[in-house]
TrEMBL record:
It comes from Pseudolactococcus paracarnosus. Keywords: Hydrolase. GO terms for cellular component: cytosol. InterPro entries: Cof, HAD-like_sf, HAD-SF_hydro_IIB, HAD_sf. It holds the Pfam family Hydrolase_3. Signal peptide: none annotated. This is Cof-type HAD-IIB family hydrolase. CDD domains: HAD_HPP (cd07517). GO terms for molecular function: magnesium ion binding; phosphatase activity. The keyword Cell membrane does not apply. The keyword Hydrolase applies.
Length: 266
């Protein structure tokens, strides 16, 4: 703990996941302590950022109202600052998108497109509603959205999603990261929240040792291994708990504020 407290004094920027980290995904509950945390960090001159699998469209108003300095969205593929200046823009190649669509069709899977400012579905079904509605509400159905928009991330989604395996010709271009029993994020092979955060650090002249991360799910794994201090929420995936530097309480029990106080950042 002594080493952790010492490292915490070097932190210059803190990134937060959204779902089940800043707020409870299924209920939308976000404690008042989160507002206190962001204001206190601002007063101390510590920068803040959101690092999420959602795209910017999916960053809900109450999160934007916290006025973070940076948004690392679509698992690192689209990164902007608080003034909407683009720091990093890495859409999937159009041929890769076409190949993914052909494969998903062959395995009888529906799909979700993430643009920079929209999330759309290939259709609307009970399976898609169960996975997506708690996060985004009902999505527009635009199966050919990719023809007129850049795609930063795709989702496979079906009642047999856990059986899907990328073919070799796609496995060297993209990877699948499970976020729901019936759905996986499909991101660029080297794409991750860590990649997006690294672009922010480079723009600021900061090192990985100067960043702290809060998260709970598998798409936080690369970021937790990236550097600095990683804090897992109590309800985190076991793989996240295994690599975290510190485990804090749940959203409902003010886990973020408790961790920052324990580590003497606040």
């Amino acid at each position: 703990m002594e080493n952790l407290l010492s490292s915490a004094q070097d932190i210059k920027i803190i990134f937060f996941d959204i779902d089940d980290t800043l707020r409870v995904k299924d209920t939308g509950y976000m404690p008042e302590s989160v507002h206190r945390v962001f204001e206190a960090l601002r007063q101390k001159g510590i920068l803040t950022g959101i690092a999420t699998g959602r795209n910017y469209y999916g960053v809900i108003p109450e999160i934007k109202a916290l006025k973070p300095d940076f948004f690392v969205t679509a698992n690192g593929a689209y990164v902007i600052d608080k003034d909407h200046e683009v720091i990093y823009n890495n859409p999937l190649p159009k041929q890769t998108v076409e190949s993914l669509l052909a494969w998903l069709s062959s395995v009888d899977s529906d799909y979700i497109f993430y643009g920079s400012d929209n999330v759309v579905a290939s259709k609307w079904s009970e399976v898609i509603q169960a996975a997506m509605a708690p996060v985004y509400g009902k999505l527009d159905v635009i199966p050919d959205y990719h023809q007129t928009h850049d795609i930063y991330q795709m989702l496979s989604i079906s009642d047999h999603d856990d059986t899907l395996v990328l073919p070799d010709d796609l496995a060297d271009k993209v990877r699948m990261v499970r976020w729901h029993p019936n759905s996986c994020d499909i991101v660029a092979l080297n794409g991750s929240k860590a990649d997006g955060v690294s672009r922010v650090l480079a723009s600021l002249g900061l090192s990985p040792e100067q960043v702290m991360n809060f998260g709970d799910e598998l798409n936080d794994l690369e970021l937790f291994k990236f550097g600095g201090i990683s804090v897992a929420m109590k309800v985190s995936h076991p793989d996240i708990l295994a690599v975290a530097d510190y485990v804090t309480d749940t959203v409902e029990n003010d886990g973020i504020e408790k961790a920052l106080k324990t580590l003497a950042i606040l």
